[in-house]
Amino acid sequence: MDNTDKQIDKKEKAKERRDxxxxxxxxxxxxxxxxxxxxxxxxxxxxxxxxxxxxxFEIAHQLALHxxxxxxxxxxxxxxxxxxxxxxxxxxxxxxxxxxxIDQESIRTFCSWVKENYGGIDILINNAGFNHNIGSExxxxxxxxxxxxxYIGAKNMIKAAIPLMKPNPAGARIVSVSSRLGRLNxxxxxxxxxxxxxxxxxxxxxxxxxxxxxxxxFLEQVKDGSWTNGGWPQNNTDYSLSKLAVNxxxxxxxxxxxxxxxxxxxxxxxYCPGWVKTAMTGWAGQVTPEEGADTAxxxxxxxxxxISGKFFAERREIHF
Length: 320
Ligand code: NDP
Prior knowledge:
The chain is α/β, with parallel strands linked by helices. The chain contains 9 helices and 8 strands. It has an 8-stranded mixed beta sheet, with helices on both faces. A hairpin with a 2-residue loop joins strand 7 (about 310-315) and strand 8. The longest helix has 27 residues, at about 5-30. It is globular and about 55 Å long. Bound molecules: NADPH dihydro-nicotinamide-adenine-dinucleotide phosphate. NADPH dihydro-nicotinamide-adenine-dinucleotide phosphate binds next to helix 2 and helix 5.
């Protein structure tokens, strides 16, 4: 077998493994949660950002199917109301509220509304995201927007939501939709600076300054045109870095929240939905939005939750 054959063989084996895992998950999903596992009720409030379409809409749909009250949010009111209507007409407990994750005024208005109407939040799903490039393109023309929506937007929401998370014996949950493209030690796509990677990998060392400093350095290099020699991830550079920042921030927040007393725990995790057929990928991809939403639902509802600051895919922990 020459090298090309070996690579094809490896790819085929990887595909077989993925397909097998997808089949396993679809079987597991058909088993309903039993009454003693079901810690949530119709009074459990789940907020989903960027839920007017794609994976976010599916997350809202599936959480509603499990009987929670879902706050479907969207930056565009008319579009969001339409999406919420689809679920409301299916008999689900879904309400709409406007929310733009990079607009502080919008976040403030949303938080006051959710506090006043529901007393707080049990589950926050940071799903809102943006990627300008499709396929193997690697333009950084919209790098600032990509970093802002994906990383700063998720950070804004986590900061705003923490004071609103309701005390709950099962623990409140924050789940961010991230990507394997943001892995620190991805084989083909990584930051080349070993020391920086090690710092970003060490949950005890990560700080907001370190993460912000990293993304800001990249954005400065985009402005002065030197980014191609900056040792940044090679594929989807701006997007990969934005998700790397989400992952690092997840670990940082999980560390900061560790000491909360029983009954007031908040578990913070992130996951990769796979390569999903949505507008973001030009409807290319290997999995449906329904499958892409699955790990978010699993992390949101997991009974006996103890896991925080971890990265998942297909209901399994994976390396950052
Ligand atoms: P879509 O482009 O279909 O959906 C993105 C959603 O984010 C839209 O609802 C969009 O709203 C919303 N959004 C964008 N900016 C903001 C903002 N400032 N405030 C609030 N909402 C905003 O993509 P997907 O469903 O595929 O992506 C969902 C998440 O999954 C993203 O975080 C993405 O990075 C992640 N992901 C997707 C993968 C894939 O293969 N599709 C792979 C890995 C991760 P609007 O309609 O107004 O633009």
